[in-house]
Amino acid sequence: MTAADTGAMRLSGSVDMTHGGGGRAMAELIRDLFRRHLSNPILDQGDDAALFDVPAGRLVMATDGHVILPLFFPGGDIGSLAVHGTLNDVAMSGARPLYLTAGFILEEGFPLADLDRIVASMARAAREAGVPVVTGDTKVVEKGKGDGVFITTTGLGVVPEGVHVSADNARPGQAILLSGSIGDHGVAILSKRENLEFETEILSDSAALHGLVADMIEAVPGIAVLRDPTRGGLSATLNEIARAANVGMQLDETAIPVKPDVAAACELLGLDPLNVANEGKLVCICEAESAERLLSVMRAHPLGREAALIGHVMQDDANLVQMTTGFGGSRVVDWLSGEQLPRIC
Amino acid sequence: MKYVDEFRDRALAEKLARQIAQEARLERDYHFMEFCGGHTHAIFRYGVQDLMPENVEFVHGPGCPVCVLPVRRLDDAVELAERHGVILTTYGDMMRVPGTKQRSLIRAKADGADIRMVYSTLDALKIARDNPDRQVVFFAIGFETTTPPTAVAIKQAQAEGLTNFSVFCNHVLTPAAIGHILDSPDFAAGGPARIDGFLGPSHVSAVIGSKPYEAAAEKYQKPVVIAGFEPLDVMQSVLMLIRQVNEGRAEVENEYTRVVTREGNGKAQALVDEVFEVRKTFEWRGLGEVADSALSIRDGYAAFDAEKHFAISEKQSRETKSCECPAILRGVKKPTDCKLFGTVCTPDNPMGSCMVSSEGACAAYWTYGRFRTAEKAKEAEPA
Amino acid sequence: MCLAIPAKVTALEEDDMAVVALEGVKKRISVALLDEIAVGDYVLVHVGYALHRLSEEEAQRTLALMAEAGILQEELEEMSGGSA
User: Could you tell me which residues are beta bridge partners of residue C8?
Assistant: First the structure.
């Protein structure tokens, strides 16, 4: 039997405690599964730590733990999500991502074939983004102590000269832009959750946004704020920014893009798309006079085709995010405490 | 979305707003109680109050089955999950409601109780089928809209011969609650509050029809308009109520004719009648004991009655001190009248059910209406 | 008022089940509470059950009633040559 055969055989088994034990089983798992997919010159050095040069300038670092269920969902999986999520955290500082790390906590009994699928997806996402996973770690916990697999990724990036992007930069009068439709990811996940299943063609919007961000920063280096509205949705992100910068906001509901299927699924379950997670969208706050230019740059990029101007920053010590409704009335957009649950009332 | 978007049309809203302003007589106020929490939610979510003239006011009613569930019953549900080792299935709405000592289902779940959120009784039945060695209890709440699905589930369980499925029944009845409110001294002539008419519940009425409200309208001489779910429905219904008040009528009218008929859904009513019977009395949070206002499972289906199956203990259940949910549920106080509102009691840390339920008046005020207070305090304008 | 939403019946199944669609979102629900449901009907869906059929004629009639609102006011304004 060749080494390749043994590798293929092993992939039909499942994770056991020896895979985290530091011995031969673990070394083989790393070689035959992780390094096979994620291969790049730095990772292939094979050392415990990754060695690389960094460009001069300000560096940013971001880390994210991924514990989602289901592991596989329409439009992605925990592997691609782990890459996109951290790349986006780095990009939201205006930075160009350089390197990624990936730590895995595996549950005893987790099918190796699934792990292989996840890591392959992760590798594909990293390749498409042009950012290598340069080091990682694997541990195994007893059955019952994990949800199959938890992944933590950390990203390192460099911020271009003259770029200062931060939530507390928001100022009254600035324009609030949104790169596309909201609620896609959350609805895609919910459609697969047990006791809730519904059929839909909605795919998660999980995507790496650093290319879009680079285009935007090149056009308008003075962008004030960038944020990706993930957990808690657009409402959480806007409220966070309002609080950080001690401002208020005024939004126009009719300007916020929502796909018809997403709106329908939310109606069915009693959810508000404003509170539903996104994984491939960003909010950008800029001077009002830059809005037009930024919108055309965003719409020219595949991830920003539906970019829209959704509101303005206001003077408001109460830090309220307010919205004129499509109906002609007005309401406050608050952030939820905890996850939004489907309701009957 | 068909039958949805058309009833949210802004141009029609503006027309209706003008008509309402035209017909609401300047020399008086109009106080209309929207019985159902779903209407409260719609009013705030779409900002319907902004389109009303100053002298038309909504009084928020107790039509939120989550809000009116007595603390003791919630404590019982927590006990079923924690001490009787059952799989407790529940609608999402109940997960965060605080019981005695702030103990909620979500906290019990965090401590290891097997509590599972479901969208439908269909899912609860599936869990029972998939776990034949465990007892599965469905925590049934809701008004007449939600009761027929529970009836179907019990009959289905019987047809399949499931021996591990039972229902903890807390279904409540609408007309009795309306009568109880109007009987209370709060709304007697000269009392602290006033109701000139009711926006009747949309989907309860789809099941029970508009007929059951006729006795109340006659007895208390108050107009009732069965109002649809969408904001335009609410506005059209307000217009119809204003007309009734101006003309001195006290009838039951139906605005939601695309779904509600006078008789309702006979098949659903028959099924409910077969499985359930009316309890002589039931405690409603805020309203106290209300006669003929709730349902229990008939003896013929006792095998599926969790209260008969499990020895649920007697409890000392307590409302949180200073919590004004009872008065708010009766429409006598506003959330802003409650000492705890916005200070100790917030959506992050709810003290009572009105803050937890997305339909609860306090939650609606917090989520959608806070800016009114902010507006009064300062001007909000771009620099 | 109990969250219920109008959806279109796209398929009927055994055991009183059906598939409904709201835009492109499809869900299997129970039609045990209704008689004589046909594909193409719109039904009100609440916690996985169809509660009632929707009447197209009544929906149109309600919308027409709403559209009448404000017309008299407009005419009055026109007659008096400006807003009242």
Answer: C21, C42
Instruction: Give dist(CA A246, CA A223) in Å, integer.
Output: 18
Min distance C42 CA to chain A CA atoms (Å): 14
- Give which of C25, C28, C43, C45 to mutate to test A binding, by max A Cβ within 10 Å: C25
Domain-located, residue B243 = yes
For residue A218, is pLDDT > 90?
yes
Q: Which residues of C touch B91 (CB under 8 A)?
A: 47
pLDDT class of B381 with cuts at 50, 70, 90: very low
DSSP string, A232-294: THHHHHHHHHHHHHT-EEEEEGGGS---HHHHHHHHHHT--GGGS--SS--EEEE-GGGHHHH
> What's the CA gap between A109 and A189, in Å, rounded?
24
Residues B352 and B291 in one domain: no
Superfamily of A3-159 according to CATH: PurM-like, N-terminal domain (3.30.1330.10)
C-alpha–C-alpha distance, residues A239 and A229, integer Å: 11
Q: Which residues of B touch C59 (CB under 8 A)?
A: 3, 6, 258
Rounded to two decimals, the ipTM of the complex is 0.87
Q: Which residues of A touch B348 (CB under 8 A)?
A: 337-338
pLDDT, tens digit, for every residue of B95-120?
Answer: 988 888 888 999 999 999 999 999 99
Residue C80 has pLDDT above 70, yes or no: no
The answer to whether residues A301 and A219 touch, using CB atoms and an 8 Å cutoff, is no
The per-type count for chain B, helices as H runs and strands as E runs, is 17, 11
In 3D, which of B167, B183, B172 has the Cα closest to residue B279? B172
| B95 touches B117 (CB < 8 A) | yes
Alpha-carbon distance values, A300 to A175, A176, A229, A242, A245 (Å): 19, 18, 21, 29, 30
**A167-332: what fold?**
Phosphoribosyl-aminoimidazole Synthetase; Chain A, domain 2 (3.90.650)
- Helix, strand, coil distribution of chain C in percent, nearest 5: 25, 35, 40
**B265/C35 touch (CB, cutoff 8 Å), yes or no:** no
Distances (CA, A) of C35 to B70, B207, C50: 36, 14, 11
The SS3 call for residue C24 is: coil
Contact call for residues B357 and A270 (beta carbons, < 8 A): no
| A175, A310 Cβ separation under 8 angstroms | no
Q: Which residues pair with B282 in a beta bridge?
A: B290
Which residue in A has a C-alpha nearest to residue C24's C-alpha? Answer: A261
Q: Return the amino acid letter for B336.
A: T
Element (H, E) at A216: helix A210-219
Mean pLDDT for all residues in chain A: 92
| Token pair of B22 as six digits | 């035209």
What average pLDDT does the structure give for chain C? Answer: 86
